[in-house]
Write a structure and sequence with these properties.
Largest sheet: 5 strands, antiparallel
Shape: globular
Order of helices and strands: HEEEEEEEEEEEEEEEEEEEEEEE
Strand order of the largest sheet: 6-5-9-12-11
Oligomer: single chain
Length: 290
């Protein structure tokens, strides 16, 4: 449905607004990574009318066919944000810490961060420090896939204590952003050669989740030698939220990795062998192989 309305029976439809609505529909059905049609397609629309400032008198027009419509990517001058931050009581009581989020590899405007939320934590986020976007912002929608218990009237409030993967998608909608917030369960996995060749999300290779903010996520013991590959579980391909360790710090994938972390440079490839485990402290942003 288009956001703009008309007070008269004569309607001037903004082509970019219609295109954005069709783009949203296409993405919802086919996924964000699907290619757009290269040839015009038929689009069918209806008009809805009602008494102004009332839900009464609702009626719909007959179906109108637009026979040749070519959907295109947004032509807005606004581009997806390059950074995203989160601030709140779970990070520090004075709300002074703006925690930068990692960018999803290859997905502009999408970010994630593994965070421990105390019970009834309150927070906001922003594309830059001191922006303070809250749950009452009409650009924000929230999906809770982890049972975090998200509510609030200004600040976001997380009722249930625990670790969650906090995910933000900022999509360009005309001259502004539309933010989709998703809370995922805290699921971290080993992949690759050190698992004996597992390249799927299997419980056998899921990290144990700590009960406290300062605790370590601990991997299952490796069963073979090779490069350690680690990632979070979301609705995307595993490699889009992949990470490694570099000089004892957690490093999130930001380049086109073909075969190995050695392609990034010295010290990014962690080599494991049977019996090794990985410890990750997401509060400190550190990790080690033991």
């Amino acid at each position: 449905m288009l956001e703009s309305t008309s007070p008269t029976a004569k309607i001037n439809v903004d082509a970019s607004e219609l295109n954005n609505a069709l783009l949203d529909l296409w993405t919802a059905v086919n996924g964000e990574q699907a290619e757009l049609p290269t040839e015009p397609v038929a689009v069918y629309i209806r008009l809805k009318a009602n008494i102004t400032s009332s839900g009464k008198g609702v009626c719909f027009s007959n179906v109108i066919e637009l026979p040749n419509v070519l959907i295109s990517k947004s032509t807005s001058s606004l581009t997806p944000p390059k950074t995203m931050f989160i601030v709140g009581s779970m990070l520090d009581a004075d709300w002074k810490v703006w925690k930068p989020m990692a960018g999803v590899y290859g997905m502009d405007g999408q970010f994630y961060s593994m965070i421990y939320f105390d019970a009834n934590s309150e927070f906001k986020f922003g594309t830059k420090e001191n922006e303070y976007i809250g749950i009452n912002d009409n650009r924000v929608t929230v999906t809770d896939k982890a049972g975090a218990g998200v509510s609030g009237s200004d600040n976001f409030v997380v009722e249930n204590a625990g670790w969650y993967l906090f995910y933000v998608k900022a999509a360009v909608k005309g001259d502004d952003y539309q933010f989709t917030i998703t809370f995922y369960p805290a699921e971290v996995y080993l992949f690759g050669n050190t698992t004996g060749g597992s390249w799927a999300f299997t419980d056998e290779w899921k990290f144990a989740v700590p009960a406290t903010k300062d605790g370590n996520f601990v991997s299952p013991a490796m069963t073979a030698s090779g490069e350690v590959r680690m990632c979070f579980k979301t609705d995307l391909d595993w490699w889009r939220t992949e990470f490694t360790l570099h000089d004892g710090e957690i490093f999130y994938r930001d380049f086109n990795l073909i075969d190995s972390w050695t392609e990034k440079g010295d010290g990014y490839s962690v080599q494991g062998s049977a019996g090794n485990v990985i410890h990750l402290n997401f509060t400190a942003g550190t990790g080690e192989k033991k």
